[in-house]
What we know:
Elements: H1 12-46, H2 51-58, H3 61-64, H4 67-70, E1 74-77, E2 87-94, H5 106-112, E3 119-127, E4 132-140, H6 145-157, E5 188-193, E6 199-207, E7 217-218, H7 219-222, H8 230-233, H9 236-255
Parallel strand pairs: 5-7
Antiparallel strand pairs: 1-2, 2-3, 3-4, 4-6, 5-6
Helix pairs in contact: 2-9
Amino acid sequence: xxxxxxxxxxxxxxxxxxxxxxxxxxxxxxxxxxxxxxxxxxxxxxxxxxxxxxxxxxxxxxxxxxxxxxxxxxxxxxxxxxxxxxxxxxxxxxxxxxxxxxxxxxxxxxxxxxxxxxxxxxxxxxxxxxxxxxxxxxxxxxxxxxxxxxxxxxxxxxxxxxxxxxxxxxxxxxxxxxxxxxxxxxxxxxxxxxxxxxxxxxxxxxxxxxxxxxxxxxxxxxxxxxxxxxxxxxxxxxxxxxxxxxxxxxxxxxxxxxxxxxxxxx
Length: 266
């Protein structure tokens, strides 16, 4: 009986071809999977933190962020002064970080007490004409987000931000144009209780020549069109408002907060 025919040598490349195709498909799958995984990882790293994560991170901004980031040495305000004038402020002093004792008038300290105080950062600026001095501060609180929202609501509904017996105090550094910046020299101010961060931002301004002010005016009122008070016409309301805006934005950026609007206690 004749032997069974052996497989033709011409058929062997087909098997090898199928194997090569299988390996190629598998390789493409692995490369594609790795690329997708890398893309997802990059996307996650660049994603905006959730509101909860940003609020939690806000507790540590005061010691995780350089002071020159939170309180820049020079701040340029294009078109933010009275009548759209440009303003420039230069930092002349930074207070040692501290608690909140002696930072506020007694009634303001009492109003803020429910939030607690982890740390207070302060810096004082002078404007380009060296005619006004401004202290800006940021209090990191111990409150949770509902606590900050409740405090903000209380400030708004009771108009605590406009009362002249609830003012922050200046940081009057010796040997600077702000050396004579005391209680009597306060001309305009703002206090903001943020709701997306555990932070209270404030600013208070006055004349660099040390003149006393009998009727200080809230920055929100002193920056309204048509305001003719001394704090308004001198730009002291703009000084307080715009530097507070800058520090508020710096804390939000450092915490990754998705909130862009300003919460101001009127």
